[in-house]
Amino acid sequence: MSVTIYIPIIRCPRLKRLALPDNFMLEDDLLIPELVGRWRDLEQLEMETKPSSFLEMIAVIGRNCSRFGRLKVRGLIGKEDAKAIVDCLPDLNHLELSKSYLTKEELVAIINGCRKLERLTVKDCLGLQVDDEVVRSASRIKCFEHEGSKLLDDYGYETDESEQQSGFFYW
């Protein structure tokens, strides 16, 4: 069963695949962890934007969704997010973080922590330049896509920790 949502999905306890739009309201965002906890058969989740409840949601998926294997999300992927992905979803098979703000440090942590990754996509990310070290780390992954990722934004400004810490990210 695949759904592009709005809230009738609450009544689908056998839900396997879910794609969330980027225009849900804060109260809907805060409900995501509770709803995800009901979908024990959930295998795949796609989100156009990272919800504010991301860390809690990942923890709930890790505890309740034993078949979960695919995650797609866009947004600011910080140290806590990378750690949550590694700690809560170590058996992840497919991960897509394209068009996110992501640094090399977070990417390498995910690569090293999620040892069952078969597909990793980080296309068009900002704050990330894939170098030889990253390629070596990802060599065991069957499909590693990273085209278009760059350290600088379109105006030539370097990305840095202060941008990441602020929580503001515009794409």
Averaged pLDDT, please? 84
Total of helices: 6
Ranges where pLDDT stays below 50 over 5 or more residues in a row are 1-7, 160-171
How much of the sequence is in beta strands? 15-25%
Look up the CATH topology.
Answer: Leucine-rich repeat, LRR (right-handed beta-alpha superhelix)
**End-to-end distance:** 31 Å
Structural class: alpha/beta
Q: Calculate Rg over CA atoms.
A: 16 Å
The CATH class name reads: Alpha Beta
Largest sheet: 7 strands, parallel
Helix share bin:
25-40%
InterPro entries: LRR_dom_sf (IPR032675)
Outline the structure in words.
The chain has 171 residues and is of the alpha/beta class. The chain has a single domain (2-160), classed as Ribonuclease Inhibitor (Leucine-rich repeat, LRR (right-handed beta-alpha superhelix)). Helix content is 33%, strand content 16%. The protein has helices spanning 26-38, 54-64, 79-88, 104-113, 132-137, 161-166, and strands spanning 2-4, 17-20, 44-47, 70-73, 76-77, 94-96, 101-102, 119-121, 143-145. Helix 3 runs parallel beside helix 4. The protein starts with a strand and ends in a 5-residue tail after the last helix.
Strands, helices and their partners?
Blueprint: E1 2-4, E2 17-20, H1 26-38, E3 44-47, H2 54-64, E4 70-73, E5 76-77, H3 79-88, E6 94-96, E7 101-102, H4 104-113, E8 119-121, H5 132-137, E9 143-145, H6 161-166
Helix pairs in contact: 1-2, 2-3, 3-4
